[in-house]
Structures are given as structure tokens and as C-alpha cells.
């Protein structure tokens, strides 16, 4: 036997004519003829061929009689493969065992390595393969050489047969040894590890090379046979066969992608797909509709052959990661080619007719392919001509198939992910919108296409609603175990990052668009709870410009309140967090606050619907007062004003505000009051005034804080000019004057002051007029504010103070003019704040009036008090307010005493013949006496003396003021001297009960001055008579 006695494979050479006869058999495509013999001995004789057949069939050497080894048996088969074409199938089947044994030996060698698994995991050798020597690599190499020679000699005849054999054998080997060896990873593991293992085996690598050679030989003519074999094997042996698909696809990406799709489409035309698709001739009759609207693996009832579409999906899925662009181009090319074929009627090309259903089925079965195409799908469909062609193409389909494809399209849209999902939504909405009168000619969408998109969107919303509200699975799931995780909806997941854009589109209120997108926002909020719901509500509240747009927010909340608990607190918290983080722009922040104000205002109007909804908004706003208060200090005026408007009507929490919350609100509210007064004047302080009035009514601590901060703010240097006060004029001048002394030593200055003899007022008493060596201080100046504006501002402040002091929000009125009754405690708080602001070092001083000689020790303080009253006329108005609620004026005794002492000093030093030369001092003297009379510190006879000050000389005014000082020294301004009169609801002072309290001894100076000027003041004598006790009591009330 030649195969037994030759050291090399039998590869003899024959004549050229014999070669042609063997390699090119008659008929096409007939079975492949004998292989060429170019380098071997002469062809076998009939006897030798008979012996070779007998040896191959029995496995025994007919001459020597011994058992053939694996190598000898394989070489005998190769000799027959060359010489006897009918033995092709038997020889190739025998070679399967050779490759199987080679793979088993390779894996066994891997198992025997130090890290190999236990021996009991090693599979037994196949029974049909006799035990061989150590490895069959040389035989495998011989097989590759022989088969390669066949392919090169006659590719059209041999390549389809050998490719089908090699690809099927790789599938069997992959399935057989998958998971049986420790070194063979499971098919669900890493594809790279699996590919590395099998390509390291000589047998499987040889089979791969043989198939690649077959595909290369037919790639220019007709590679469908090779691709068909690949598809069939992939269906049978997936997923163990995936490594083969990955390697071949990476080697021939363009060919594999195009031919796989082409073969899959041809198979789809014949076998169709469950749930839709166009069958070819003879195949449509066997189709039945599936009950599953979105099948994953289509099949045909009554047919054993599995359609290749599942294999197509698997192969393209492996190639999508590295060759996504090629797959996308090929899919879009197929789509456009099908549209170019015209109407998809049954008389047309079946492949063109089935392309659109085929592509839909591919996308349904493979999310990877859907993601590959979805990015450019919108650009592909945007031209109106494409939509028109698609509409014409689908006209020939039956109604049932059109409905089925529409359901597939709805499912595909719900599975779209990534950035293409939002673009796809916008495309569908734009296409479904009714035609506009400004639509450019040539860009209009046909009505049938618009109606189809309208129906598609409605079905999509319905489908999404079912997915969102039935995410937990069927009722029986999770009964015996934990409930299944919620089913993801990729389309809604992709819209998570586009909530802002959806809200903006919704607020445009464009006919159908805003209804669709508003419904989609609701579904997205329920699906992604609790993240997107508060975000969407916040976007709507911060962007709504009109009540119509604001109603969209209330409708969204009304639809989500059942599904999402705590929606409003989360929305408030997220919006305020964005505000404080600076990510929400000031215009949107102001709009958000104004819309909240409008909603809370609906609640205060009463009723149902928006009013009841506004009550919930008010409750949520009241729970975030600490976050809203800082917005009153926002640098943007519109934000601060909007925050003031909201807080002015926002209900306070039922429980009392904490001291920190209360003080924070009061401080911010006072700051807002003065800022609004400066920018907008009195009309702009309504919100801040209302807020402060409500805060003053929460508790006594709130009232005290409001009054204190209002008075301090009004007397602050930055706000004095609002009320006609003087401003320091040494801001620029002082810097110029002090420039030469910039290098002066503070230590030297302190040493000089320490060595000097201190005066009664301390070392700083010499600085009230200037600094020695630098001259007088620059004069004060009044900023140019209209006097009418100053009066208006003052009245606004006093009105706010009166509302806050009105008996803790009571409405009782007293007096003949119906003036509000001021709370003595509130007025006392104003008085104490005045003393602390004007003269802090005298705060808490004795209320009793000291002798006149005591004023010599307080000259500096008296001058400072007098100067402060001159710089800030508002102080007199505040004193009048305090005097209206006896006995609060008693607590201003220090200020009254200092001002009176300063006026006495001025009138004593004055050398003018009349008081007209000192207008401010004259007005201050008159106001001081009138205030003390109003506050019941002076009896009526002494309290009226200011009426004649303008008619007297300076020394006479001083004499009268001295009499006032004497009266106050004897009848000190003490609160204990006031009694409460329940009929009037206020405190009064009965001077008749005090010895000399009606001012009798102290009226002598006044009467003397009247007698001296009887010609001018005679008519005033009746005003300065001591009244009877009953009259005094009546006037005191």
C-alpha cells in the first residue's frame, strides 16, 4: 500500500489532461472531481485502489495484517480523497475524528500542566478514534496541505464543500468541549479568552485557516455558500460558536456584514418571521401571526428548520462593537435601496418588499443593532422625500402587516437609548405636528405621514404607560421569593438628561406638542421616581411666564401626587439647592419665586382646585423658610423682591419659629426694607413691610427683634440720607489730609495721650472738633434728596413701626381721631434701642433726673447727643412715636437730658437778640418740650411753653428750659408714676397727686417772661395757667 509505505502524503502527479478531467468535472455546479496529483506517484491501479479502500474501511493493513495507526488511517483517507471522488464524504467524516482526537490531546496536555484541573474532569477519548501516538499535528498539517491544494485548483467546486465541512466541524468541537475542561471557559464568559484558547490549538486553527481560504477564494464571485454554512452553524452551536464568528467577522468585516444580511434577507423572504414580515412566493402561505407582538426568536409552525435571522442577529451583534459604522452603513443602504424600488406590492421584488420588515425584526431582536442605527436614523428620515418614499413603499402591504409593523416601531422607539432617543422623539413630534402656514414649499410632510406619526406617538405613550405602571412583572412573580427587579425602559432612561428640554418644549404651548410632552413628563417622573419628578416640577415653576403656563405645573403635580409622595418638598429642596449653588440663573430664580407667590395667593383666595393646590404649595414653602430667607439678601434685585413677595404671604409653620429662624428672617427682612426704600421708594416696600409686620406678631421676641433692627437700620450711617440725615464728608477729604501723617506712629500717639492729664470725658474728648495739627474735621453735608421724598420715606418707616407696635396686631383704636393703640412694651423696645444707638455708653443709666450741676461732668456726652440729633432729624420723629405710648418715653431720659443740656449750653452762649438766628436749635427746643409734654413728663402748663419760644430772646428761652430741668429734677420721669386706665386702655399720669406736680413753682419764671413781653405775649397767658385736677386728668387721657 502506498499510504503505508511512503514517508510523505500520497500526492502524485499526473498528466495535464487528467488533471483537468479530475478537477473540472462536466456540469456545473456538479460534485467536485478528483483532486489534482501534481507531485505524487502515478495514479493507483484498480488493485491498489481496492486495497486502499479495504484498509480504510477495516482499519487493518491488508498486506501485513496489523491495525492501522491514526496517522496511517488518515493518510489512507487522504489518498482516497485524491484518487476516488465518491469517497469524499466518508474521508471528510473520518477526518472529523482526527481533528477531534487532536483537540482532545491538546486539551489533555493543558490539563496536565501544573494548574490543570483534577483528572476526573478529563473526558475519555472518542470510541471511533483509535489510540494514536503523541499528537497528530503532522497529520493535521497534511490535511491542510491537501485541502488547500484542492481549493486552489478548483475553488468553485471544492470551496463550498470544504467550507461547510470545516465550519460545521468547528461548531461541533466548540460545543463538545465547552465547559468540560478547566482551561475551556464557558461560552458566556470572555470571548477574548475563548478565542485565544481555540486559536492556540493547532487543529481548530487549521480549520479556521481552511475556511478563511475558502471564503477568500469565493469572495469575488459568490460567497453565499460559505456565509450560508456560517449562518447554519451559528444557529446550531451558538453561543459556543461565537468565537468563530468574531474571528471571521474581524477578518472580513465588509463581506461578512453584507453577505450575512443578504443571506438573512433571502431566508426571511422564504421563511418570514413571526409577528410580521413579507414572505416570498410559496412562503407566505405557511405564515401564521404570533401572539407575541414583539418576538425574540421567530419560528414557523410545522417546520423543523430554524430561520437564520437569529444567527444573523448573533453575528452582527458580535461585530457591532468594532464595526458599528460598517453595519450602520449597510443597514441604511438596504433601507434606501428598498425605498428606491417603488411601491412594495406583492408583484414587486420579494427582497425589496421584505427589507423594511426584516430590518424591523433585526432591531427588535438585537438592542445592539438598534443602538447602532438609532444615532443616524433621524438624519436618514428627515428629508421629506424619504418619508414620502416610505409611505409609498408601505401602501402595498396588507392592513394587518402594517399594524404589526407599527407595533414593532412602537416597541423599537421604547427601546431606543442614548442621545438618539431624544432626537427621535423630537423628529416624531415635529413630523406629527399639524402643518403651519409658514411651512416652506417642498418641506411639507404629506398628511398620511403626519397622521401615521400622530398615531405612532399616541401608541408610544400608551405603550410607555403600560411599561411604567406594570414594571413589577406578572402578579404571580415573586410570590415564593423576592420580587423581581423593575423592568428597564431604555427610551425613558435616555430621556433622564433631557428633562429641562422637555419642559421648555412643553411650555411653548404648541397645539398637540405640549400635550404629548406633558404626558411624557408625567410618565418619566413616575418611572424615574423620585429624581425626575421634582426636577420637572422645578423646571416648570421656574420657567412659566403666564398663568396658562403655570397651570401645566399644577396639572403635573395633580397627576403625580398619588404616585409620588413628598413631591413638593423634594421639588422645593432641589430648586433651592440649585439657587444657592448658583446653577439656577437669577431670572429663573425670580420667576420661580413669583410663581410660588401666585400659587400661594390662589390658596388665600379660598375655594377648590388651584386654591387647594396652592395650600399645599404654601405648606411646602413654610417648611423651607430658612432656605428662603437668604434670598432676601440676593444681589439681584428681582430675586430679592420676589422672595419678599413670597415670604410676605407665605404661611408660617404651626409651631413657633426657632430663635435662629426668627432672627434670620427679621434681619433679612429689615435689610430688604431699606434696600427697597432706597431703590424703589415707599411704593416698593409693601412686601417687606408686610413680612416684618407678620414677624412682629409671631411672638414678643419677634416684635422686639423687628423694632430693634428697624431703628438700628434707620439710624445706620448708610441709611441716614434716606430720612434727611447728614453724611460724613470726610471720606475723600480725610484721606488727603491724613496722607502726610500716614507714617505717624500709633505708639508715639498713645504715649503722648498717656502723659497728658486726662479731662473729665477721657482722652478722646478733645477730638470732637478735629485733630490737633490737622485742623477741624470736614463739615457734614446732606445728600441731594427731595424733601418730599424724605418725608415720604419717614412716613413709610413710621407707619411700619406703628403697625408693629399696635398691641401685637390688635385692631383696637383709642383717642378721638381713631389712632391705633400702641403697645407700651413695644414703644419701650424702641426707646431702649434709641438710647443704645445714639449713646451706647449711657445705656442702662438711671432714669432719675440729676441736678443741673451734674451736666458739667457729661459735657462731651451731651454734645455728642446734640450733634446726633442735628445730623439725624429722624430721631425727633422716633421720640414722638415713643411719646405716644406712655410711659415709654421715660426710658429715653438719658437722650432727653443730653439734648436739653446741649440746648441750654447753646442758648447760654448765644449773643443774638432773638432766636431766629438759630433755627435748628429753636426747632429742637420746641420739639423737645412738646415731646416731653406728649409723653406726660411735663404738665400741660409747662408743656405749652414752646409756643412762645420764637417770640423770646435766647436768654429767655434758656430760663424757661431751666425751669423744665428743675421740674424734671423734682418730678423725675419714672414709670412708677403712671397708672393704667382700663377705660382708655393706656397709661396716664395724674400730676395733681404729686406735690407741685401741676408746675406751680416752676411756672413763675414763665409768668415773669410773659409779663416782660406782655405787649406781644399777652394773648398766650391763658395757655399757661395751672388747670384744675379734673381738667388735668381729662387732658392726660
From TrEMBL:
<feature type="region of interest" description="Disordered">
    <location>
        <begin position="1"/>
        <end position="44"/>
    </location>
</feature>
<feature type="region of interest" description="Disordered">
    <location>
        <begin position="279"/>
        <end position="303"/>
    </location>
</feature>
<feature type="compositionally biased region" description="Pro residues">
    <location>
        <begin position="26"/>
        <end position="35"/>
    </location>
</feature>
<feature type="domain" description="Integrator complex subunit 5 C-terminal">
    <location>
        <begin position="308"/>
        <end position="1017"/>
    </location>
</feature>
<dbReference type="InterPro" id="IPR029444">
    <property type="entry name" value="INTS5_C"/>
</dbReference>
<feature type="domain" description="Integrator complex subunit 5 N-terminal">
    <location>
        <begin position="47"/>
        <end position="269"/>
    </location>
</feature>
<dbReference type="InterPro" id="IPR040316">
    <property type="entry name" value="INTS5"/>
</dbReference>
<feature type="compositionally biased region" description="Low complexity">
    <location>
        <begin position="1"/>
        <end position="12"/>
    </location>
</feature>
<dbReference type="InterPro" id="IPR029445">
    <property type="entry name" value="INTS5_N"/>
</dbReference>
<dbReference type="Pfam" id="PF14837">
    <property type="entry name" value="INTS5_N"/>
</dbReference>
<dbReference type="Pfam" id="PF14838">
    <property type="entry name" value="INTS5_C"/>
</dbReference>
<protein>
    <submittedName>
        <fullName>Integrator complex subunit 5</fullName>
    </submittedName>
</protein>
